[in-house]
Amino acid sequence: MKKYMDKLRKNIHINKNLFIFLLVIVIIGIVTGSLFATILGADDKAYVTEYLHSFFSNVKAEKLSYDTSLMNTLIFTVGFALIVWILGISVIGFFIIIFMLFMKAFILGFSISSIISCYGFKGLILGIIYAFPHHVINILIFIILSAYALIISFKLIQCLTGKKTLNFKNFMNRYLVILVFSIVILIITSLYEVYIVPKILNMVMNIIN
Description:
88% helix, mainly alpha, 7 helices, single chain
């Protein structure tokens, strides 16, 4: 594992500009999502508010369906990782990967901003608990995975155009390791989000109410 982590750090250093670019995309996505939550129409705001009240009421009453929540969370996290990974070897997924990463950040920014808008100062505390650390870790994993997918996609394009040769076996082995690493982390954060976060939210809501 140490060998792979050393390689990961080396690749991040070599492709620093790409990682900075993806980080900027994430920041823009979060800011855009946050702003979008503030300009919703009255009907949309009412719908979001009703959804949030229902969610936090279920959290407080401990009426959440953990199995369903876990399944949905895994679909949206592990499923996202698998799609990005596949797009990386499809050659045509360059812009789709960037758009998907932007949308992940957009949804996170929208969710946090909606919670704050709905509950004020209490919403700020709840929003931090909602996002940290699992969603932050997920975003970092998605940045790493997206960066590798883009690098792989670019290398494949170079290979197809005859500008570069590629050891496909070594290339796929390294790329598969990144996928497995990402999925393991995403499963851990999903378990934390489903089983731990509601308990923390419940405890905090009892304190601040």
